[in-house]
Structures are given as C-alpha cells and as structure tokens.
Write a structure and sequence with these properties.
Layout lengths: L6 E5 L4 H11 L3 E5 L5 H4 L7 E5 L3 H10 L3 E5 L17 E5 L2 H11 L2 E4 L18 E6 L6 H6 L5 H16 L12 H8 L12 H28 L3 E4 L20 H7 L1 E6 L11 H8 L4 E3 L3 H6 L7 E2 L3 H12 L2 H18 L2 H18 L12
Parallel strand pairs: 1-2, 1-3, 3-4, 4-5, 5-6, 7-8, 7-9, 9-10, 10-11
Length: about 375
Amino acid sequence: MKDQAATVLCFEHATIARDCMDTLQALGFNVIPMTYSPEVFTKLPFLAFDYLFSINFNPFLSQAAEALRKPYIAWVVDTPCYGLYQEAICNPLSFTFVYDLAVASRLKERSQGNVYYLPVAVNEQRLIPAEPGYDHDVSFIANLTPSEYQTHIRPRLAAGQLQILEDLIAQLDAHSACFSLTEQLTAAHLKIVKEVYPLSGLAYLSEQEKLVYLLGREHSYRERVAAIRALEARFERVAVYGNEEWATRTDAYCGHAEHYEMMPRLFQRSRINLNLIRSFVESGLPMRVFDILGAGGFMVTNDKEDLHHLFTPGKDLVIFRDEQDLLEICRYYLSHEEERAAIAAHGQLTVLTHHTYRSRLITLFQTVQSALLATPHLEAQAYSNN
C-alpha cells in the first residue's frame, strides 16, 4: 500500500466522465483528464499514473494497460457497447463495471473476466436549486438515432423477408418488459439478415444477441417517435430536446440540451419528464433516470427490472404500461400538483441517499483494490488515497 494519493488517468466522455473526475478529486485522487486519440498510445508510457479509467470498454486501452502493467477500469453505461464483447475483456488487469445486471452477469460467466455490476448515478454537487414555474407540461430529452436496420438492412430485403422481420419488431410492442426477443429468433431469421449485414466477429456476443440489438434499436426509434406524436396531439406544451433527427419527426423539437447545466433546469421546469428506456436494454437504467430524479423532476417511465430494485414505483416515479396508459397518467398528474410534487421529492431523496457518484466510485475502487491485493502475481499495486 502506498501512502500518497493515487493518480487516475481519465478519458473524457460526452456526459458521465466529468462527474466521475469531479468525484474522484473530491475523494482525494489525483486526476489527469485525457482526450482519446490514436496519438495517446505514444504518450502513455511517459505519463506517471496508477489507473487508466474510461467510460465504456475500450479494447485498445485494455491492451495498453496490460503492456504498462497498470490497472484499466471501464464503466460501461451504454448498450450496445460492442467493445465489451472482444477478447480484451479477459485481460487480467482490466476491471469492467456494467450498468446492466443481466449483461454483466452473462459476460462474467462467458469471459471469466473481472466484470461487475454497477448502476449509474447522480452528481449531487452540481445540482442547482429549482426555480418556481414550468416551461413545459411534458418533456423528453434524448437523441433519435436511425438504426442499422433502417439504414443497412431494411432497404436490401425482399418483401417477404421484410415482413418476417417486421413481425418480430412488432412483437416488442405486444409484450411486457420481461419478453425475450432472443428466444423468438430462428436460424431462418439469422439467415435473412446475414445475407445483407454482418452479425459475427465478436467473441462474447452471439449472432442472435446482435440481431436483437439491431431490431431493438429500430423498435426504440419507432417507439420514441410514436410516443411524442401521441403526447403532442393530446397536450399543448410538449417539448423534445436532442439531436436534429427529431426535427424530421415532430413539431415539438426544441433543439439540443447541454448536459451539465441546461438539462437539470429542463428537468426541474417540466411538470412531467418522460423516460423511454430502449427495448434492447435488458435490465439497466440510463443516466436520464438518475439525472431527472436527482434534479427533483417528476418522471414517468416505461418499465425495466432495475426500476423495481433501485426505486419504489409509485413513490419515486411512475411506470406506464402502454401508449394509452402513458396519456392517461400524464393527464392525471398534470391536474394533481401535490401528488406529483410529493413523488418528485421522494424520488430525489432516494437518489441523493443511495445513488451518488461518491458511493458508486468508492464501491468501484474498493472492488478493484481488493482484486489486485488478492492476485499479487499480476505485479500491480493497490493504491490508497488520502
């Protein structure tokens, strides 16, 4: 054990990395921000650091860490993260934390690597006091990204093949959050897609699972558009923030929302904040859940397993079943201010008590240090921080 503060070389990321860096500094670590580029690999051997840290798993960083005999820590917060399924996940100095329990458990079993479950969180230190008043009745902050199915697969299919895959996508509308599309796929489905789009090439991701991601991405695109169109047809002050793809699909588009300051304000100044977890996510919760509740916003969301493990539906947030249920829930809570405010306050207290970056990163580094101490043959040190 060393008595000086450990140095963490942190790679930047559009959202979560800054919160991690701020929290690590508050915990006493020395933090060096890094921008990822091919040139970084020529610099790493000349930098003094104890840990490499990135958001989402990068197999090239994992290999570099092995060469330098330094621990590499990745916190995976996106699905799919294809880098996660490469052989580098097995490197003994790589420690991978995944926000989705189902993915983490399956990947740990398949790879026998250092893979752990760790949900995302909120940085309470940058939350701003709420101002009175509301700008929107219902708002949704998310990107709308065309799927590979839409751009590369669908245009190349014959009519009969297209109908078979469209029927699969439609099943995601008709079933609960526990429905497994993987179990519905057959060799015939795989054959149709493999003729026009590659499904193989990843060590720990099956062709069936990759196809589920592809079809699920398309379903989620359609689901988001349909939900916003239904809301803007029913209510007056509906707003969508995200990338410009939204402008082609809805009149409710209001532009991009900067993550660190603008987004918390929007969560606070919307009577209802919509959360749509993508259908291909198995159990985990996106950052949006923690950001909305942490800011003190009221959230209406579709269902996912971790909502029941980490929160209390009905007290911290409200879950809708289908589009009609979403419309009715929004109608009800727009006219019941006290109930809406009580749920928002309870949700915020739950997040700030149990789901902060401080608690997550303490858990993360304790896990890594314990693993390093248990495997001295790795020639890596476990570092303490002041």
